[in-house]
Structure formats: C-alpha cells, structure tokens
Amino acid sequence: METIESRLPGLQSLLEALSRSTWGLKTDLARKIYLGAIRPALAYGAIAWYPLDQAKKSIIATLEKWQGKFLRGVLGAYKATATSALEIESYTEPLDLYIHRQALIGVKTQSIKQKDALLELEAKIEGKAKRIKRRAI
Predict the structure, then answer these.
(1) What is the pLDDT of residue 85?
(2) C-beta separation of 45 from 66 below 8 A
(3) b vs e for 90-102, b when ≥16 Cβ sit within 10 Å of the residue's Cβ?
(4) What pTM value is reported for the model?
(5) How far apart are CA 110 and CA 68, in angstroms?
(6) CA–CA separation, 74 and 53 (whole Å)
(7) Cβ partners under 8 Å of residue 57, min gap 6
(8) Contact at 8 Å (CB) between 43 and 98?
(9) Which of 86-95, 103-112, 117-126: highest mean pLDDT?
(10) Cβ of 107: how many Cβ atoms within 10 Å?
(11) pLDDT tens, residue by residue, 101-110
(12) Radius of gyration (Cα) for the chain, nearest Å?
C-alpha cells in the first residue's frame, strides 16, 4: 500500500497537467486516461487483499480518497466536492465496487489457470502410468 501511495501524487500531478482547463485535454479524454491507466493501478493486487475485514477497510477508504482527488483533477471540480458526486458526474463506478469486481475476475482467472494446470498434470501422470504399465507387460 505504501508503494502505491508513494506513486499516486506523481500520477495525480501528471493527470492534472494534461487536463488543465485552458489548454489541456478534454474531460472525456482525461477520464479515459484515468479509467484506463490510473484506476487499474489503484486496484492492482486486489485479489491478494480484497476479502475485507475491519483492518483492510482503511485501504479502500484511502483509495477512494485518491479516486476523489483524481476525479477532481479530471473534472476541474472544487476540493470540497464529494467523491460520490464526482463519480456520478463522470460516469465512474464507485471504487469499492470496481475493486470487488476486479478481485472476482482475478479469482476466476486464477482458478481457471489452476484447473488447466491440474488437468495437464493429470494427463502427464496418466501418460507415465500407461508407459510404466506397458513396460511391466
């Protein structure tokens, strides 16, 4: 978490520099950059820490705070604007729901890979068993 938090101010300043109101990117392009590059960085590793208990809920709160900062930069909103209002205005899914979905996708992908690896291992064992059985005959 500390590694992510140390990198986020730099990402925020870059996004704000790109989306300045006078000469920067339009809001929809800045939003696409946020959703495509920065938001996945916020949710990175969610499969490892997502099953939330009380101690881990502070991680989500911290990440939601950062999402608000990024969305304020994208939309050019005031600092006092609520994150939920920014999410509605920018058509952005709340971060806790996004992280939950990413963790579920990660678990599903991992279980499919494990299943494939087990089937491959089973096939190898079966092949070796057949070869050993042929030698014995």
Answers:
(1) 93
(2) no
(3) bebeebbebbbeb
(4) 0.69
(5) 31
(6) 31
(7) none
(8) yes
(9) 86-95
(10) 14
(11) 888 888 888 8
(12) 22
Structure tokens at 46: 């969610």
Q: Measured between alpha carbons, how far is residue 92 from residues 36, 49, 75, 84, 86 in Å?
A: 12, 23, 12, 9, 8
Amino acid, single-letter form, for residue 112: I
Asked if residues 46 and 102 have their Cβ atoms less than 8 Å apart, the reply is yes
Q: What is the pLDDT of residues 108-118, one digit of tens each?
A: 888 888 888 88
Question: Where do runs of H (alpha helix) occur along the chain?
Answer: 2-18, 27-33, 39-42, 46-49, 57-75, 83-89, 95-136
Residue with tokens 């590793």: 45
Q: Which residue has the tokens 């950062």?
A: 66
